[in-house]
Amino acid sequence: MLRYIIRRLMISIPLLILASFLCFALTTAMGDPLGEWKLQKPRTPAEISAAYERTGYNKPFLERYGSWAGDFVTGDWGESVVPGNAGRDVKTDIGKAFVVTFRLVILAEIIALLLGMLVGVIGAVRQYSLFDYTATGISFAMFSMPLFCVALILKTGGISLNNWLESIGADRWIITAGPPGDGFKGGFGEQFFQYTGAYILPTISLVVIQFALYSRFQRASMLDTLNADYVRTAQAKGISEARSIFRHAFRNALIPIVTVSSLNFGATIGGAVITETVFGWSGMGKFLVDAITKLEPFQVLGFMMVTAVFIIVFNLIADVLYAFMDPRIRLD
Amino acid sequence: MTDLTSPVAPPPTAPTTADKSQFDSSSARKQWQVIARRFLRHRAAVIGVVIFVILVLFAFLGSAFWQYSYTDLGFTRYENPTANHPFGTDRLGADMVAQIIRGTQFSLQIALVVAFLSTLIGVVLGALAGYKGGWVDTAISRFIDLLLVIPGFIIAAVLVRNSFVATATGGGSSNWLVVALYLGLIGWLSIARVIRGMVLSLREKEFVEAARALGASTSRIIFRHILPNTVDVIIVNATLAVAQAVLLEAALSFIGLGVHSPDTSLGLMISLNKNELNLHPWLFLIPFVFIVLISLSVNFIGDGLRDAFDPRQKRVKA
Can you name the residues that pair with A151 across neighbouring β-strands? Predict the structure, then answer.
């Protein structure tokens, strides 16, 4: 196992190098970071050449890649370069954004996973029941729905709720501008009130997205195991239905869902772009959108590299968990 | 990144129908009849087809029949839906029916281009990798692994940003096709993996060996002998790709990295009207309903096709 993990990590290094090259080419394709700045108003040639000198964008592509990659591996992820916005350290900003996103995503993922597993198992055990049809219908609708609309509707609902609370003399509860930057204040009750107010809507909107996926996967894998020969054998030998469902079918049905959820978690850590944009959280997704909008090459690059590392690591975690849960899988 | 990670990719749903006769055209026709009959029995799928056809007619012919054009401004602003303006008017005093017709048209255009392009690239590369094996397979598979490491959404957003540079010079230029091409260029990974897997098993069949023994060229074997046996999976995937493309384009346009003026789309309309939800909810809800109608109807069609192609399927599921 250990040897397998090490080998996989070794394979990841050339993959990451290739990915970094591709990402660098992509940020170059994004456009000249100074292109729009130059057009805002007339600039003197000296001003322009000084700006290019500072950003390094007057050098050829490969040279720029080399100097960025060299700095990156030594821990210097560059700075924002567009004048007026220049000098923000990329690594510090990504670190802050990551903490925000992580707190939001981890809670939502756990809720969505538990809820999805519960609904999926019930849907499979009571296949073609009213519950099953309702759950299938809801997840089908969720797959067909633009989720930013769900988030926007939730946000509007939250604002209406606030107005209603105010009209009956209570405090406004829902916070639609992200968690307070300087942390929650006051006694435990007040803090709990602020915490739930800030987290409830973005969490619901994220749960809705992931729930549809997890419940479908859990239902499919549970149906597979319920129809498997070993479950029928167990039932023929006279064990109770509950025991056959939980001890025999459910435990085996967990294998695919664990894989899917760890892969999915690796991808969502890269930012809940829509949710963060709608609810004004300054997390990874918002960071990326802002960086692209402002044409900041090193911010986009730093983001992409962090995402790539997470995806690779969680792919590995998914494979290792898979081998742990299903002893028939030999990794080495 | 190896095959162990494949559970997220859609499993090849339909079994390979490799043993059906390649030359007997009457039995081939009969098989399509069977599929059509099975599809027509799937009630949700038939409703999906009806809704989708109505939407296409509405989007592409609607402007010829509707009394107002999307360029007609100057009606009362924020008018509630009335008989004269069934969907009301927006903040510029434009008729919303005309705007929705145009938005639906752009959303459908983009989705169809994306689905076509991603299916084409995915099928060709997947078939090449599966049939050729060796270094071709290694190169294509590693390339897919590489692209999977960077989420496609991000690649598309970064590339689309490039098409904005023209707007800084004053006067935006049309960019819907650019958005569609980029989304198509990133959307082919899962279909390529599925087709590769199917071709890997199909190329070992006797009829491929027979074709090779008769001296058929590689491209003839791939396109005339192998790919016809994967057509069910291709059609289902292409259908579902349309629904995904509509939603992805809407999300990109919503965060401001998709289609922009002078073009439009349903996603952009929602984005422009996102602050109207309290006071003028129809401006937000109508494009929202149209997006849901498109993706829901296409998803139903895809589901119906999947069931119709799959001979093991007895029971019709929603």
Answer: none
Q: What is the ipTM of this complex?
A: 0.85
The verdict on whether omega for the bond into residue A202 sits within 30 degrees of 0, i.e. cis, is no
Question: Where is B237: in which H helix or E strand?
Answer: helix B231-254
A39/B168 Cβ within 8 A: yes
Task: Report in angstroms the alpha-carbon separations of B247 from A72, A235, B239.
Answer: 35, 45, 13
Chain A contacts of B295, Cβ < 8 Å? 143-146
Query: Which of A10, A133, A136, A149 to mutate to test binding with chain B, by most B CBs within 10 Å of its CB?
Result: A149
Cβ distance A263 to B4 less than 8 Å, yes or no, reads no
pLDDT in tens, B201-228: 999 999 999 999 999 999 999 999 999 8
The residue in chain B having the minimum alpha-carbon distance to the alpha carbon of residue A17 is B146
Contacts of A153 in chain B (CB under 8 A): 277
Q: Is B181 on the interface with A (CB under 8 A)?
A: no
Residues with Cβ < 8 Å from A144, sequence gap 6 or more? Answer: B243, B247, B292, B295, B296, B299
DSSP B194-206: HHHHHHHHHTTSH
CA distances from A228 to A121, A250, A329, B202, B268 (A): 15, 12, 19, 27, 48
DSSP tag of A89:
B
Contact indicator for B263, B105 with CB cutoff of 8 Å: no
What is the SS3 assignment for B95?
A: strand
**Is B291 within 8 Å of A149 when comparing Cβ atoms?**
yes
Taking one residue from A and the other from B, the number of pairs with CB-CB distance under 8 angstroms is 145
Measure B4 CA to nearest chain A CA, in Å.
6
Alpha-carbon distance of B132 to A47, in angstroms, equals 55
Dihedral, A219, A224, A226, A228 alpha carbons, nearest 10: -170
> Which residues of A are less than 8 Å from B299 in CB distance?
140, 143-144
Name every chain A residue with its beta carbon within 8 A of the beta carbon of B52: none
Whether B220 and B232 have beta carbons less than 8 Å apart is answered as no
Q: Taking chain A (332 residues) in consecutive chunks of 10 residues, what is each chunk's mean pLDDT? A: 86 91 90 78 80 80 88 87 80 90 90 94 91 90 86 88 86 74 72 83 88 90 90 90 89 88 80 84 89 90 91 88 80 64
Q: How confident is the model at residue B15 (pLDDT cuts 50, 70, 90)?
A: very low
Q: How far apart are CA B40 and CA B47, in angstroms?
A: 10
The first and second tokens of residue B250, run together, are 């809407």
The pTM (predicted TM-score) of the whole model is 0.85
Other Cβ atoms within 10 Å of B167 Cβ, number: 14
What gap in Å lies between CA A321 and CA A170, rounded to an integer?
Answer: 48
- State the Rg of chain B over Cα: 23
Provide CB contacts within 8 A for A8, sequence distance 6+.
Answer: A316, A319
Surface of B (248-277) touching A: CB under 8 A: 250-251, 254-257, 267, 270, 274, 277
Contact call for A318 and B5, based on CB within 8 A: yes
> DSSP string covering A17-83, please?
HHHHHHHHHHHHHH--TTHHHHHHS---HHHHHHHHHHHTTTS-HHHHHHHHHHHHHTT---B--ST
Across the interface, whether the CB atoms of A274 and B7 are under 8 A apart is answered: no
**Residues in A touching B318 (Cβ below 8 Å):** 133, 136-137, 140
With CB atoms and an 8 Å threshold, state whether B162 touches A256.
Answer: no
